Amino acid sequence: MMNFDLTSEQQELQGQLRRFMQREVTPLIDECEASRKFPFELFPKLAEFGYMGGVLPESEGGLGIDYVTWSMMFSELGYHWLSLRTMLNCTNVPMLMLASKGTPEQKEKYLKPLIEGRCSVFTAITEPNVGSNPAAVQTRAELKGDHYVISGRKLWISNGLWGDFGIVVARTYSPDCDGKLSLFIVDAKESPFERRAVETMVLRCTGTAELGFYDVKVPRESLLGEEGEAMRVTLAGLDAGRLHIAHGAVGAAQSALDLASDYAKTRSQFGKPIGSFQLVQKHIVDMTMRVNAARALAYQASCAMQQGRATMECAIAKLYATEAAHEVANMALQVHGGQGYAVGYPIERIFRDTRGGTIPEGTTEIQTLIIGRSLLSMSAIA
Q: By Cβ atoms counted within 10 A, which residue in 135, 194, 226, 350 is the most buried?
């Protein structure tokens, strides 16, 4: 039987993180949400806690943080602001790729500044006609002499609007590669490309963008890893991304539950707290069950990640936690009544942002197919 209770050291760190978030993050949220901007000045401060690549081994510049502690840290991000969780997710997944596949020169130029919180990054997989199936990517990279020429469009790219560089998935054509997918580091200053903001109802401060690569030249040295191995590297990165999203959802759900519980104790109707009403209590009970179940599944995935790759466990955690978080946010809004609709009040934002967790890194439906394939050893994906 697995024990998901935090150790005293983890609890102490959790307390430090919560105090930091309340002091440094919470005061910025309303202004950022209104302007759809992200406070990148937080990155160096977050780096001090290990949020920037802390799960990497010390040999790669990380802190060797175990996945249970790492997951608790992402739950705290979700508890306070899901846009922040998203930005840390789209920072750390590329860092895992750079650490595992980058050359010493690439690590010095790109990984080190990320760990220090001095720059930001995006990963560009999805396209206008390609969502959860990376095998259908149409963006091309053709080797011409000492550089590759990248052509194509990417859509729904978190931090695509602001990232200093990105890791781009492209179908590669060279003497050694005939259309297989590869990863390329595209530096925004050295290899300019087009960016267009895509405004969304969820996660408004994450710089979601459409990117246009129109005969963009990148040096041959920008290839990350070997030609044709992007699928394997990308799928491994998705496990980590799904784990981050799951724990962020757990944190957001816990926040919604705490807000609803406090409101039920202090809001009075007909001369008594609404928490004394049977139907309000049912909402609180149902929310608590979903939060606890989501947390258990998420930490089960964390333990599996600590042992190695955990595709099914991360898919289960991501599917259940994100769906449960939005259900919890919906019930929390119901408990708050009209107050829950108020812009600037946390429940309204949590309700929107938890809906955003069910789609990235593979939709709920895609997670279902991944789990089914793992359980039955048969794929429902053609």
A: 350
pTM for the whole structure: 0.95
200 exposure class (CB count in 10 Å sphere: 0-12, 13-18, 19+):
middle
Read off φ and ψ for residue 32, nearest 5 degrees: -65, -40
- 3 belongs to a structural domain: no
pLDDT recorded at residue 1: 45
299 located within any domain: yes
For this structure, is 361 an active site residue? yes
Assign 232 a pLDDT band (cuts: 50, 70, 90).
confident
In the structure, what pLDDT confidence band is assigned to residue 63 with cuts at 50, 70 and 90? Answer: very high
Tell me the residue range of the domain where 21 lies: 8-120
Give 287's contacts (C-beta < 8 A, 6+ positions apart). 253, 256, 257, 260, 328, 331, 332
Confirm whether 336 is domain-assigned. yes
Reported as type and span, the H/E element at residue 145 is none
Total residues belonging to the chain: 382
Q: What is the pLDDT of residue 268?
A: 79
Q: What is the DSSP letter of 37?
A: -
Closest CA to 171 of 136, 220, 215: 136
- The backbone region for 64, taken as left when phi is positive above 0, alpha when psi lies in -120 to 50, beta otherwise, is left
Quick one: what percent of the chain has pLDDT higher than 70? Answer: 98
Tokens of 306: 């600590």
Say how far apart CA 126 and CA 168 lie, in whole Å. Answer: 10
Q: At what angle do helices 67-80 and 278-307 cross, to 10 degrees?
A: 140
Q: What does DSSP assign to residue 39?
A: -
Decide if 184 contacts 223 (C-beta within 8 A).
Answer: yes
Q: What pLDDT sits at residue 198?
A: 97
- State both tokens at 133: 């199936």
Q: The domain spanning residue 367 has which CATH number? A: 1.20.140.10
Q: 26 pLDDT exceeds 90?
A: yes
- Amino acid (one-letter) located at 373: R
- The Cα diameter of the chain in Å comes to 79
**Cα distances (angstroms) measured from residue 32 to each of 16, 38, 176, 305, 357:** 23, 6, 47, 33, 20
Q: Which is the catalytic residue, given 33, 227, 348, 361?
A: 361
Nearest to 65 by CA among 305, 235, 343: 305
Q: Are 103 and 92 in contact (CB under 8 A)?
A: no
